[in-house]
Every structure is written in C-alpha cells, then in structure tokens.
Hints:
This protein is α/β, with parallel strands linked by helices. It has 2 domains: 250 residues, Alpha-Beta Barrel (TIM Barrel); 73 residues, Arc Repressor Mutant, subunit A (Orthogonal Bundle).
Amino acid sequence: MAGIYVHIPFCKSRCIYCDFYSTPYTDRIDEYINTVLREAETRREELTEPVTTVYFGGGTPSQLSTPQLTRLITGLRERVNLSQVEEFTVEVNPDDITTEWVEAAVAAGVNRVSMGVQSFNDNELLFMRRRHNAAEAIAAVHTIQRAGVSNMSIDLIYSIPGQTIESWRETIATALMLNVQHISAYELSYERGTELSRQAMLGQFEPIEEDTTIQMYHTLASELAAAGFEHYEVSNFAKPGFRSRHNSAYWQRVPYLGLGAAAHSFNGRRRSYNPDRFDAYITAIETFGKAYKLEPQFTREEKYDEMIFLGLRTIDGLDLRSVSRRFGKSNAERIKRLIQPFIASGDAVLDSCFLRLTEKGLLLSDTIIRELMADDDFE
C-alpha cells in the first residue's frame, strides 16, 4: 500500500504557535492547483503500490472554494489511480465550514475530516490567534456530521498560557460530547521563529509549569480512556476502528508521495522534500516537472535510531526480533539492557519480543528514546 499527501499552504492568518509553511496569497490558489496536478502527472510512476490513503494538509485546505476543492480531487483522480483508497482525509478550520463545502468534499470522495479546534475556551483561542470561537467550532462539527462524515478527528492543545486544569477538563468534556471518533492532543510547542516564542522571550506571559502540564496530560489520557478511546500513539487517541490510517502508515514506514510546496515523500528507501517557498515550487514544476531534492542517505546508526523512535511512539511497540534481524542480536540485547530501569519504574513493559511504553511512559517517550539511541556501545 501507499499514501499521497497534498500540502495546501494557504492561511488567512498565522496562529501564534505555528511554524508550518503557509502563505496568505489566496489569489493564487488556482495557479497552485494547476501546479500540484502537473507534479502528480510527472511523479505518478513513483507510486509502485496501490494508494490506500490520501491526506490534504496545510496550511488550511478548507481555504479552497468548493469548485477549487472539487477540481483538485477530480484532477488527482484523473492522474493517479485512487480506486483502492480506504481513507481520504481533509484538514479544515471551523470558520471555513459550510454545508455546501462539506457536501462537495464528500461527493468528491472525502470520508474523513480533521478539524483544528485546539480549545473550546474563547480566551485560550484568542491568545492563540485562532479565527474561530468555541461556539463556531461546535457548530462546524455538527455541520460536518450532518453532511454524512462519520469519521471525524479534532485537534486539541494543552499547556496554553492562562489555561487551567478545569478549563482543560471542560475542553475535553466538550470534545467528548460532540461524539467524534478521533482526538489528537499536543502540548503547546515553543518553536523557534514563532510569535509565541518571541512573546515568551519578552516575558509577555507566564508559561504553564511542568507539573501542571503533566497533570493535563494524565487528565487527557484517563478521561479519554474512560470514554472508550484507545491511546494508540503519543499524541493520538481513537475509538476502536478509527485510528488514522494515513498517519499510522508514516510510523510503519509505508511509502508515500508528497505533492505541493514543502511536502515530503518516502519511497521505502529514501526521503525527499519539495521547496518550502511558493514561487520556488511553482518555478521548479513549470521548468522541470519535479521540484524535490533527496535527503542524505541514512547511516546505519540513523536507521537504528529511526526504528526505535517510530516503534516506541505507538501502542504496537518495538519488535526486538526485527531489531535483531536488521541490526544484529547484540543491539537487540543492548536495548533490553538499557530499558531495564524504565521497566522497573513502570514506564515500559517487555512482552515477549515487543517493547512498549506504558501510559505513564508515553509522557517520557523523548527521554526514553534518547537513552536507547545509538552511541559508543552500538555495534
């Protein structure tokens, strides 16, 4: 199987925390669609396995008008065989949603919607410079569900300055009340170059303390578990049968083709990336039909580190038999030795040949993974 990712970089405004590539030039959407379709035409032979997932991310894909969205999906179908697609996801913002837009998306083949809500508290939304309020987000979820979408995900953020345990509980409760099938929840990240980081450096707000952030994480995990959600990846929770197939494929190193500015691809052996500038991407496709550059080949140590990182992010865990086959028995034994303190502390379990992090351990995943990565005793 394989996946297709299409990056839609258009945004009306930039959120305070965002470091993804985006552009406000919505007057050039039609030009961009033409370019993405040309890239799909020239790169379709790279898809050597059936496409089973499609994901439109951003930016804000819901910035496309109904005709533009339909033209992009129709054009993609004309160039790439999508007859075996099982999951077709489109990211949206609440303030863009109309019944007409969602019905057009469904008619074109979209069967999963991922909405960037982030919070159901108006003060927290205002701080993050989101363009919607809580009532608009709730109304947008209902609109999407009435249009026939029965697989819906919402994004939430915790550790927002000014957020409290109680306001976080209320956001979780509202999300559960909406009967969505999937929730992605992320700790607010202070990325370099963002407005959030600038304000933090100037002392314009008080960041949430680490102990409170940890409490928020545990509150999230326990309340979603009680509601029947499976915590299947560090930041992702799903009702049974509703894991994100596209994102799960990333963690399983399934090949995917990335189309559009700033999109990344993986052919099963080598990764590549497109320019993260609008004009550079357009010019390259117009001139050469392709815009990507290959990332450097991974060293043996980097491949080992990637296997650990991807395996321990998910509830499925790391198969030490696979580690032994790819990197030798000694390195599988190395992992067993280094993980012992985390097993003793209840942060990890070793079940037969599978190493998994516990609910408690997932919060410390970055620390645990760093301890297991290749160093001087890697063979």
